[in-house]
Structures are given as C-alpha cells and as structure tokens.
Amino acid sequence: MVQLQTYSKQQPLFAVAGVELPKAAPKHILTSSDLSPAQVRLVLDLAKVLKYDRNFAPKQVHMHENRVLAMIFEKQSLRTRFTFETAMVELGGHAIYLTKSDIDMGNRESISDVAENLSRWSAMIVARLNSHETIVELAKHSSVPVINALTDLDHPCQALADLLTIEEHLGADPKKLVYIGDGNNVANSFAVTAAMLGHEVLICTPPGYEAADVCYSFPNVTQVYDPVTAIKDADAVYTDVWVSMGQETEEEERKARFAKYQVNEELMSHAKSSAIFLHCLPARRGLEVTDEVIDGPQSVVFDQAENRLHAQKSLMKLLLDGVLK
Ligand code: CP
Ligand code: NVA
C-alpha cells in the first residue's frame, strides 16, 4: 500500500486527515436581486468574450476539469437544460441531470439531505423547482453555489440572456423596454435586471396580474394597464406565455383575461419601427404572440435562446472562480 508520506512527495496534497480547510460561504443566485448592478455588468461583459471565443477561437479552453454540475429539474425544459449542460461541458466539466422521478426531493428524502449530499460531490447546483421556497431551503443547506433555473417567482438566468441580447441589438445605453402579459417569473427577473442596468421598464399586465413588488421598488420601473399606451415608442417589446407551468387549471380564465395583451402586428406598429421583439420561449403561437411577429424581422427570440448558453457559462465561470461573492 502507498503510504501518505510517499504519496504526498509524488503528488502534493493540499490537506491531510484531521485538518479542516476554511470554507467560504457559497454565493447563491436565487433571484435577480442576488447580483449587484456591477456583477450583472461583469456577467454580461464576460459572456460577450466567451461568445466571441466560442465563435472565432473555438480552441480557447476555459478549464474547469472534473467539476461536476448537479442539475435538479422538477419541470420540463429545452433551453435551460441544454444550455447549462453545454456550458458546463465547454468549461471543461460535466453535468448530471436529476428529474423529479429520479430523486423526488422532499418526499424520498428531505430537501436539506439532498443539498448536503450534492454539496459533497458537485461544484455547483442548478435547480428548476416548482416552488421558490424549495430553492431557498436547498440553498440554505448547500455549501456550493445554487443557481435558480426557474421557479414560480424568478428566472434570473433568462434575464441575463435577455439583457445580453438587447445590448447586442440596441447597444448598452438606456432604452425603453416594455414587458406585456403576465407579471410572472420571467417578468420579475427581466424588470429587476433591466432596471439595474438603467433602462426604463414598463410592465403592462391586466389588473391583478402585476409583477412582484420588488420590481416596482426601482424608480425606473412603471406599471401600465393599457397595451397601446405601454408600447408607444418602445425600443423592445417582451412577452411570455399567459399560462406558466403549474397554472394549467387557470388556462381558460387566463386566455380571456389576457386576450387584449396579444403582441400582434397592430400592437407592434405603435412601437418604434426599429423595435425588437423578445420572448423567452416556449411560445404559445396565436395566444400571447402571432406568427407574423415571432417569425418577423423584429424578432430576436433565437438570439435570446443562444445567449442563454453564453450568459450562463459566464455566470458559472465567475462562480467557480470565486469572483462573485
Ligand atoms: N426559456 C426557457 O427557460 O426555456 P425552457 O423552459 O425550455 O428551459
Ligand atoms: N413563465 C414560463 C416560463 C417558461 C420558460 C413558465 O414558468 O412556465
């Protein structure tokens, strides 16, 4: 058997049994407010570099070998799953995807026990969970960073990709950004992140469907109820589904309440002619947006989808490198 002394001469050891390494408190990204405006700026700037490298210098390596990303998904996903896994692979590590039927967190075992276990094996946890309270509990017991990949309250990584896309198309100067539809998780994160970057944000929802209070704590975020008033002279128009995952029983009521908030060519005609159209996807074509708009020349929805990769790679790299605290 190789003795520890001999082994340590060949392979320097950073710690020996009985010596506790000091552990820094992990930085969690549970809501968009968990990043400061300066940190949002840093994530977007690094994302631009990483995107350039990937497209024009693909041999450039950003090594995080052998780092494992745990991904807990209680809800369906195309973009979020694919882009987090791809980003981790491109950073040099890999990801392990755990669905509700794999681990049934909270039933098969407690949320805290899942967090304690995954913290021992993985460098980071990405979680898409039904209830925001669950991710708060998960993070409380995790000694590695936890990133929200969508809860009922927030979708912070989506917002980073959205703002990256807006900057690519319109530049970084403050713009008039209008969110129309349900004041949901996507609206909450978009409004907070856009407000932090100094944009003028209008949230346009039916009464009773406003965004979370935190959005309106920014002086540059306003609530409007009339879509034509809201969209006037907009630089960017954003919408999302009227019925989010988990709200299926409200479908008929919501379709009726949101009908006049559909983003169609007539509504878009009140925005600037240079305005761009955003949607986080998946879209319910013919409901919140028409084919003509989402497939039209103003639509940047697939740039947004691509930018999920670059924004999340940047966020994960900054967390793995300990730059975000
Ligand atoms: N926009 C978004 O989060 O897409 P998925 O639900 O497919 O991950
Ligand atoms: N608001 C939607 C976003 C999907 C990416 C939902 O929560 O289902």
Protein described:
α8 links the parallel β5 and β6. The chain has 2 domains: 143 residues, 3-Layer(aba) Sandwich (Rossmann fold), CATH 3.40.50; 148 residues, 3-Layer(aba) Sandwich (Rossmann fold). The chain is of the alpha/beta class. α3 crosses α13 and α5 packs across α6. It is built from 13 helices and 9 strands. Helix content is 40%, strand content 13%. Bound molecules: phosphoric acid mono(formamide)ester (CP) and norvaline.
Write the CATH fold name of the largest domain: Rossmann fold
Strand coverage percent? 5-15%
Question: Count the helices. How many?
Answer: 13
Which blocks of ≥5 consecutive residues have pLDDT under 50?
none
| Secondary-structure class | alpha/beta
Reading the helices and strands in chain order gives HHEHEHHEHEHEHEEHEHHEHH
Bound molecules: phosphoric acid mono(formamide)ester, norvaline
Number of E-type strands: 9
How many domains would you count in the coordinates? 2
Taking all Cα atoms into account, the compactness measure Rg is 21 Å
State the CATH superfamily name of the largest domain: Aspartate/ornithine carbamoyltransferase
Shape: globular
CATH class type of the largest domain: Alpha Beta
**Mean pLDDT metric:** 94
Q: Largest sheet at a glance?
A: 5 strands, parallel
The portion of residues assigned to helices is 40-55%
Give the termini separation.
Answer: 42 Å
CATH architecture descriptor name of the largest domain: 3-Layer(aba) Sandwich
